[in-house]
Write a structure and sequence with these properties.
Arc Repressor Mutant, subunit A, 3 strands, mainly alpha, 7 helices, single chain
């Protein structure tokens, strides 16, 4: 894909509802939650242990968004005390193939992307954006 000319039929047509759903389903925490729930159902505390970097507030918001979109279901277990378990839905399972395609693309093109980043950072003659991002990640 070397042609960078803009063709009207090559443009992404991402309407507001599509963009909103992409933001809600493919964000950092949603992907981590879906990765866990694809393996097996989990309780909130199990998800917190499996994704230690997520805060309680972020995990709660993520689960609510995924539940609202029909990707995850919240099941109240008939135990004493009452417990809640989160499970991926049939609709949620359909996300796996497109996410796998994106991950395969990343695997194939990551060396080229890393080289482009290196050239960009050298041209900017300062700390790389990757280094700044990683430093910011360590602070959180």
């Amino acid at each position: 894909m070397t042609d960078t000319a803009t063709h009207s039929d090559d443009r992404f047509d991402i309407a507001a509802p599509h963009r909103e759903l992409l933001d809600q389903v493919l964000d950092k925490w949603s992907l981590a939650v879906l990765n866990e729930l694809c393996v097996q159902p989990a309780r909130f505390s199990g998800l917190r242990r499996a994704i230690p970097a997520v805060t309680q507030k972020s995990l709660t918001a993520t689960l609510r968004r995924l539940e609202r979109n029909g990707i995850v279901e919240r099941v109240v277990l008939g135990t004493r005390p009452v417990a809640v378990e989160y499970r991926i839905t049939a609709l949620g399972k359909t996300l796996r193939p497109p996410v796998d395609i994106i991950l395969n693309w990343i695997e194939a093109y990551l060396p080229s992307i890393e080289e482009a980043r290196r050239r960009f950072d050298e041209a900017m003659d300062g700390p790389s954006l990757t280094q700044e991002y990683e430093a910011g990640e360590r602070m959180t």
